[in-house]
Design a protein that fits this description.
sequence-specific DNA binding; Alpha-Beta Plaits; 2 domains; Arc Repressor Mutant, subunit A; Tscrpt_reg_AsnC/Lrp_C; about 20% strand; 4-stranded antiparallel sheet; alpha+beta; DNA-binding; 5 helices; transcription
């Protein structure tokens, strides 16, 4: 379900995506409005779910999480109890940055951040000890070419 946004809403969202730590005064100046209408619009977008949360982006490599693996998972299990256990295992692991259920030959793809290959193996061994997985392929990202959290508005 999409929410109707006008041009000012989109400008506000673009500013928040660019730098969520800006003051209301700074955002208002950037979008050509005043502080109170900007605050009201941000509040309404939070209430409607357009703005889910505000957070800080950290540099993974600066924190020692130098290895990024994309993990392709095929399963022969599709029952609800298996899916529940699998999803629980993913949610309990902070190494899993993203998880997607896919159409096609691969059932799931995970983005996993760890310090190194040995740490990935620890993650992998823990995952397969909790849930039965038919096939796992891990792809090490050699270089991050583009990464953004900014949605096209």
């Amino acid at each position: 379900m999409s929410v109707r946004l006008d041009e000012l809403d989109r400008k506000i969202l673009a500013e928040l995506q660019r730098d969520g730590a800006q003051s209301l005064d700074e955002i208002a100046t950037q979008v050509g409005s005043s502080k109170t209408p900007v605050w009201n619009r941000i509040r309404k977008m939070k209430e409607s779910g357009v703005i889910r949360q505000q957070t800080v982006l950290l540099d993974a490599e600066a924190l020692g999480l130098e290895a990024c693996f994309f993990v392709l998972i095929r399963t022969s299990e599709h029952e609800k109890h298996w899916q529940d256990a699998f999803l629980r295992a993913l949610h309990e692991r902070p190494e899993v940055m993203e998880a997607h259920r896919l159409a096609g030959d691969i059932d799931y793809i995970l983005k996993v951040r760890v310090p190194n290959a040995r740490a990935y193996d620890v993650f992998y061994q823990a995952l397969i000890s909790e849930v039965k997985i038919h096939n796992v392929t891990a792809l090490l990202s050699m270089e991050e070419i583009k990464h953004t959290t900014m949605l096209p508005l």
